[in-house]
Structures are given as structure tokens and as C-alpha cells.
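Researcher: Please generate the 3D structure of the following complex. Treat every line as part of one assembly.
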Amino acid sequence: MDDILTYIEHHMQDTVARLQAFCRQPSIAAQGVGMAEMAGLARRTLAEAGAQVELVPTAGYPVVVGRFAGAGSKTLMFYNHYDVQPPEPLELWDSPPFAAEIRDGRLYARGVADNKGNLVARLAAVEAWLAVRGKLPLNVVFVAEGEEEIGSPNLGPFAEENIQTLRPDGCIWEAGYKDTKDRLEISLGAKGILAVDLRARTLGRDLHSANAAIVKSPAWRLIWALDSLKGPDERILIPGFYDDVRPPDDRDRALLAAWSFDEAGQLVEFGADGYLLGLSGEPLKEKFLFQPTCNVCGFHAGYGGPGVKTVLPAEALAKLDFRLVPDQDPYDILEKLRAHLDAGGFADVEIEVEGPEFPSRTDPGDPLVAAVVAAARLAYGVEPVVKPLMAGTGPMYELCQRWGVPAAGAGVGWTGSRQHSPNESIRLDDLVQGIKHIALIIDEFSALSCS
Amino acid sequence: MDDILTYIEHHMQDTVARLQAFCRQPSIAAQGVGMAEMAGLARRTLAEAGAQVELVPTAGYPVVVGRFAGAGSKTLMFYNHYDVQPPEPLELWDSPPFAAEIRDGRLYARGVADNKGNLVARLAAVEAWLAVRGKLPLNVVFVAEGEEEIGSPNLGPFAEENIQTLRPDGCIWEAGYKDTKDRLEISLGAKGILAVDLRARTLGRDLHSANAAIVKSPAWRLIWALDSLKGPDERILIPGFYDDVRPPDDRDRALLAAWSFDEAGQLVEFGADGYLLGLSGEPLKEKFLFQPTCNVCGFHAGYGGPGVKTVLPAEALAKLDFRLVPDQDPYDILEKLRAHLDAGGFADVEIEVEGPEFPSRTDPGDPLVAAVVAAARLAYGVEPVVKPLMAGTGPMYELCQRWGVPAAGAGVGWTGSRQHSPNESIRLDDLVQGIKHIALIIDEFSALSCS
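Model: Done. Output below.
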């Protein structure tokens, strides 16, 4: 593989220039900015590299699909997204978010870590293979959607219609980051999510608060309904909520033990004075990755300004997200939530579903994982960290596990990448290593005997 | 008294013109608009009527004090305020809030019911006495503060310094309204209030909600803290909260029974589908007037917009008001609230006090009440309704009960006056009756033998 790795090193100038071009094209799905332009740029770039490219229409932004035919019947899929988070607040950026400025060996831009850097890295690895060897050792398919940052509402339908044609044997997920000790983190799954709005309304209009003596308060209704969901011991009280939670097995625990979570550093970063329930060590890591949550993203009712306004608000709204772990089903949890509220006397509290996603995970013993880990050892010279799950959520289930496709996430970010925040960046040294990693994954995965 | 009552009728044109002039002078304490001008107008008008007037300075807006010396040593105090509520939302007014337009026998203006109409009515009654009889049968003192609509923060200190000089034997409180059956309501007291902000903060900044698995949520902290204050049975759970609640006695119950509360009409007005705990009849009225409340005026944390934002907010704020009944003490309740939160493990929830006011009440058997009721029978020809307490709050304790001064509220408003709302109005027929009522109160109260 030295020939390919050397080629990659020699072509970094072009690769960085291409990444800058990608980053200079805004593509903000939530704001509808630059989406068609970015899809077009991705299509042209893939086609120039030799891919057969198609913009697959969806109910929202199209999915860019690019195929490179290689040797044999095995197919490796790269999942990426060409949309980025909104760049605001702009005033906190040291250089404009779409300027793609390079300073001190870092490229700063909205979306460079999440995940245009990865899209470009994967393409650079494929190009190196083609330039040096003339042919890929397996088929490669790029799937780049335009709606990851707005919840991937159309990736499931896309997969339903196309996965049987694409026939991937494994998938490299969109992004990845080095940890605080500069070790690559490889993620094998993601939590699911059920995001809901809970709404209580008891009055036609806001009233003088003297009337609180005799009419129902929607704020109190919602406080009591929420209290019935979770108490200070953090145990979620919806009957059956934990029924499908699969506890970590011995392999998961070994991975957790190998994962060095920077407890003290994270506390400083969070501005918190301690972890929930006083947890630390293995129980903390297990709770982070293997336990579901019931979080209040927002609660709004009545007056919130300075001083006194003695009002009885007509309506109250709570926005919740439940992060779900394998094998919880967001639709099942929704039913249980409704039944629990009804049984508790809160039939009047309305539920609006905002975003269900299934949890996903790939077996740590899957050959894809072995290939990604082996490639990482070669590319980085440092043992990578394998995380059995991410604490966050992504549409991995819809594209991969639902169809029996193993997936692993790895990428060119680092612990300071600040994805979703101002001054998002990657380090160019990480970019080189990340491209080599992908080239080596292609090699390792193609060498596996087909199952 | 026919001579005085006839004089009042014959001078209504001047009285209405003066009321329009008062209403056309904005005086919005909360916004600092027109306050000096309105204090000046009140001073000039009182002085022209023959009063000895003083603008007594306070830490905020001055109190206008106007004295009319009469026969004997008895003194009747009229408490009013020259500030008004902000007029917003302006677009809901059918005529500009400070135009003081007359339509269909009603005068529409911000503050006309609450309570410039009453200030003008009381002055007109005094002028009628002076014009017809040459002298008042008792001393009259006007006390008009400029901060009632912002919580009367300086009325207590004013009373402390001045009440011994003013030496009132009784007080007519600022406002009053006819009920849905056009019967004058006379109020003998007001609930007190403790308004507090409760704040929880657990994080240095908003975090990605995946972190809810391992760090404390301020929204949940506040939900649990609030739940510990009151459950769905509406019983307030702070130990000792009800210790000083004086239950209604037989006289109170008789007054409650005579008070016709329009249950069905109010529900329509509230847009509610029923009363709290299914109450109706006497228990509903008793709860409205004689039970304290713990109300959520506002609750704000995190995201409240459309769609999903999976955030773990750094801070949560709840704004509460406790309406207090005799003999609860807002400072005592504050201590008990703090102790209860501490004992429940919520020492981290901060309390900021926004506005404490004591509850107040005058003995229904007080001679002042008899005088006000007797005068009402003569002025209105309809038996008035005596309410032992208002469900709302006013600074009556600070100016009256604290010094042993009996007080009763009566005024020129009606059930549709919409005080604090757009299209505030009084009916000019009610204004005439209200002026006569005051003239008759002066007569009745002066005739009482001094206690």
C-alpha cells in the first residue's frame, strides 16, 4: 500500500484546494441556502473522478449517489451528507464560516469536520487507488444526502427504494473524531431518538393570576405530567420503557473499558460541578452510551421577562427528546408515553411527534469492524478506540442496520473540531491520515472473504 | 341630601370634561411616561377645589396628598393612584387609549376605570358638598400614589412617615365594579402576594442533548422543585404554609352566600371547560376568596420554536406568585419556601423575591362598612354586594390595616370595564351614581359616633 499512501501525500495540495472549494459553497439545509449548488458541485466532482453519478430525488433535497465499479462483487458504501449546520452566531467566528481559511495547520469552516472533510477524504482515497492501481479492489458507492442536519426525513424512503440495487456489504459512516489523547474513535452505532412536543391548554386566553384559585393552570398540568415521566433518581417511569434495552455484553464492556473518557476535562468544558448521580468511571461511561434519556429541550409558558407579571398563562409547551438505545423502538415508546400520560390523568396533555429515529448498532465482532480497526492501526500508528455506540443520534439504522448492513463511523475530525459551533475546524495532518485510513480500509475490507 | 345630589347631576358636564382631561394625560409608571405631568394635573385640580396639596417625595414617584378641612375631628381618606397600566396591545383598541372618546354613554380610556374615574368622582362629591353646604362634615384627605400599577413599592414607607399626621378614621379604597347583575360590589380586603423567581443553573452553556445522559438538567431540577410545592390536588405542600390562614367565619360565609358569582358566564369568559377540582357553589366562592394560591406566571428554559432542537439548556427560570390570605405573612412564607426547597434537596434552586405584599381585611362589622353599605342603598337603589376579600392584591395593608384603619373599596366601574385590557371603559350613568355614593358616604360616615 506504500504506493497509494505516497500518492495521497503527494496530492494533498489538490485535495485541500478541493476541500476549500466544498467549504466555500454554503449548503445550509435548515435555511435552504446553496443546496442545489452544493449537490451540483458534489455531482461534478464525483463524475470527474470517474463515478457514475445520479441525483436521486426525494421529497426534500436529492441524494447524490456515485458508483465506482471495482473488482469482485463486494461493495463498500460511504455515507456522507452535503448539508451543514447554520453558521450562526456569526460574530463568534474568527474568520468567516465559508471562507475556509487555513491557520496554523487547521482549516476553519462550517461543515469542514461535519462532514465535508470526510466526503473529500473518501473521494481522495478512491482517486489514489484508481491513479496508482488503475482499478478499485471492490465496488464503492457514495451516498451523500442533503438533509442530515435537519433529521434525515427522507433517507429511510431513499433506502427502501434503492438499497437492494446498491447492495452494500458494509458502510463507513459520515464522521469521526480523535479523542483528547489523539486516538481515532470508531463508532459502531448511534442512539435513536423520539422528539415530542407536549402541550397543555386549559384557557381561552391568559388570565389575571388571581383566577389561579379557581381554574386549571396549563403550566402546572405540564409540570405534573413531566414529573410523572422521571424523578430525581433519573429512572424513567413510563411502564415498559426499559423493556427493550439491551444491556452491554462482555465485548461492549471491554470496549467501554478501553474508551478513555476525559471526565475532568469534560466537566470543565460543560461548566458543570459534577456528573449525574455522582457517577464516574465505568458506570458513567455505560450510562452515557448504553442508557436512554428523557431530556427537556425546552419548556415555555407565560411571562419570562424582568419583574412581576401576575398572569395565569393559557398554554404551556414542553419539548422533549428521548435518546433511545438498542433495541428500543421510537414508535413503541411513543405509544407507551401516551398510555402512561392517559393512565396518570393527563389525557389532556397533547403529544406532537417531531422526530422518531431508531437506535442502531453493529456487532463489534463484525468483519467490517476488524477491517476498519486494522486499517486504523496502519494509518495512525496508534491503537484506535472503538465505541460500541455514540451518545448522539444519526440515521444509521435507516440506511444500514435495517437492511443488515454493518456500519462503522470514522473521520478526520479531532476533539477540538467544534462541529455545530463557531470556528469549526479540522487539522490538515488529520486529513492526510484520514485519507490513508480510507485507502487502507478499502484494502482490508476487499481482502476479507465474503460472508 | 337631595340638594347635594341634584348639584352633582347638574355639574356632570364639567365632571366628565375633567375626567377626559385626566384620561388624556398618559401616566404609565411602568414606562415612565407622563408621570410628572399627571402628578401636576392632580395637584392643580385638587388645589383649585380648595385642598391643601403636597407632593410628598418617595424613592419613586411622589404621592399627591390633598387635605380638605371639615367639621369635627373625624377624617375620611380616599386612596387612589394617578398611574395607569401600559395601553398595549394598541391595535386592539377601537379608539386610541388616551383619546377618552365617549360612545354610547361610555367613556373609553386607559385608566378610566382603574382608577381615574374614581379619583374624579371623589373630588366631584367633595366639591358638591363644599358648593352646596359651604363646608364638609368631616375632614377629607386624598392620597394618590403614582406606583400602584408597579406594585406600590413606596407606599409602605410613605405610610410609615405620614399616617400619624393624616390620622384617617376610615379609607375608601381605589376602585370598585358592578357585578353581572348591576349590583355594586364593595370589597373589604385584598389578598397579599409573594412573587418570586426560581432559577436553576447546572451548566456553563447549553449543551448537545446527548449529554443529558450524564449531567444535570436545570429544567428537570426546576420541574421537580415545583412539583414538590404543589400536587394535582392543589394542596400546597410547603410545611406550615396554611398555619396562618384564617378560615371564613359566620359573617364571612353570610357575605359569600349573598355574593352571586356568575359561574357559567365566567367560564365562557375564561374559555375554560370547568372549575378547579370540579368545584361549584359556596366551596368555589370560598376557594376563590379565602384560599391562597401557588401560581406559575411563567416557566422558561431552552428552545421553544418550531421543529426539533436537541439541546440541554444551561438554565431554567420559573416565575411564581403566591396569593396570600389573612393572616399569612409573605416574609414568613418566603422563609418556609426556602426551608422546604432546602429540605427537599433543592438548595441549588435560587429564589429571587420580586414583590411581597401583606393580605388585608376589614371587619365586616366595622362602622365604616355600615356607612358605605347604607350610602350605596341610597345612591343605587339596589342592595350592594359586600365581598369580604378580593381575589386580587393591593397595598391596602400598608396604608390601612397595618395602622388599624378600616377600608372598603367601591367605585364607578362595571363588569365590562376591561381594566388592564384594551377598550377599558366606564358607563357615564355609573359615574353619576358613584359620585352620589361618595357624597352619601361622607354624610353617613360623618354621622357615626366616633369610636
